[in-house]
Every structure is written in C-alpha cells, then in structure tokens.
Design goal:
This protein is 15% helix and 28% strand. With 210 residues, it is an alpha/beta fold. It has one domain: Putative cyclase (Glucose Oxidase, domain 1, 3-Layer(bba) Sandwich). The strands form three sheets. It has a seven-stranded mixed β-barrel with strand order 4-10-9-7-5-11-12. Helix 4 runs parallel beside helix 5. The longest helix has 9 residues. The chain starts with a strand and ends with a strand.
C-alpha cells in the first residue's frame, strides 16, 4: 500500500506570504479535442523540496541531489503534541526517535493537515528553531522533512534554512496525511522532485510504501 504525503496542487492554494499562488488554465484543441493545461506555480508550491542552493550561493541544485538520497528508511519523529509550538532542540531530544547520521528525518506535528488552508496558517503553525536545526546537524541527518514551517515568517535572516542548507541538507516541506505514519518508528519514504536542472526547489510527490 502507498500512503501519499503530498498536498494536491490547486488554483489559489496557500503559498508563503508575498508570493503568487498556483494558477492553471485549461485549453481544448479545436482540431483534435485534446485537453492541455498551462500552469503558473512557484518552485516552493505545496509539498516541495528546498535544495541547498535556495540559500547557499554554491549549494547543490536539484539535479545535484541523488534520487537515492531521497528514498529509503526514514526516522519518524512524532511531534503532534507540539502542534503550533516552536520545535526546539530540547523538544527533539525529549522524543523517543532514534535520530542518527545519514537519516532521512520526518518531523510531524499535524499542522498542515489541521490548518494549512486556514488564513492564519503561516502565523500559527509550528516552527523549527535555530538550536533545533543545529541539533539535527550535530547528528548528521541527511534530509529533513516536515509538515509545519521550517522557519517562521518573521525570521528575517532565515537562520534555520541557512543552517540546514549550509550543511548540504535538502528540506522537504508541507507533508500531509501524517496521522497514518506519525506513530511509527520508521517508514519506507520516497520524495521525487521534478527534474529542473540548476533550480533551487521543486514541488515533489512524497509517499510511504508499506
């Protein structure tokens, strides 16, 4: 069985404040009757991956991240009791999750499932704190994925992104359907970005295979 952790792309869906949201325009050919769509979207739309190049000038771009790195056994960190809270190093250390070197790490609060389509999602969702990002890097994780805000909208210098991206760690943001996996210790996780050579980010299809 496949558990899909991907938000559906749809017109007007929420996007980080200040950016233009997803738009689509259907077209039917007068000659063949075939249906096509033209779409406008941010590379950070919906469930997506940030490559290190997002914040680091010489960081890896999407095409420089091996697909092998984006699939495999992932450690699940159940943070649902901290929905809407700052996720600090102490919070991460207090969990039973066995987080170690080379891990794909899924940080799950339930914020996206509960509040993503609320007008104030970007104000009230959980956020990762700078010391939590440093804690994860000290443990040598390979990929960080979450279902909240990697960083609050008021974090002007973006220290969390810069810590993770500066260590060469891709960030997968806005996972959904997490209740299906949040109580497990680990899952078989896959995240597939669009191949956009030289780009800093892409929407992804993220899923777990049972």
């Amino acid at each position: 069985m496949v558990i899909d952790l991907t938000l559906p792309l749809a017109d007007g869906m929420p996007l980080f404040p200040g950016f233009k949201s997803f738009e689509s325009e259907p077209s039917v050919s007068d000659e063949t009757g075939s249906l096509t769509h033209r779409i406008h979207l941010s590379t950070h739309q919906g469930t997506h991956i940030d490559a290190p190049r997002h914040f680091i000038e010489d960081g890896a771009t999407l095409d420089e991240i091996s697909l092998d790195r984006l699939r495999g056994e992932a450690t699940v960190v159940d943070l649902r009791s901290h929905r809407g809270d700052p996720i600090t190093a102490d919070v991460l250390a207090s969990t039973d999750a066995d987080i170690g070197a080379g891990d794909i790490t899924l940080l799950l609060t339930g914020d996206v499932d509960e509040h993503f389509y609320d007008d104030d999602f970007f104000d009230k969702a959980a956020t990762l704190t700078p010391n939590a990002a440093e804690w994860l890097m000290e443990r040598g994780v390979s990929v960080v994925a979450n279902d909240f805000l990697t960083e609050g909208i008021d974090a002007q210098d973006r220290p969390v992104h810069k810590t993770l991206c500066g260590a060469g760690v891709p960030i997968v943001e806005y996972l959904c359907n997490v209740d299906a996996i949040a109580d497990r210790e680990s899952v078989d996780f896959t995240c597939v970005p669009i191949r956009l050579d030289g780009f800093e980010a892409s929407p992804v299809r993220a899923f777990v295979i049972e």
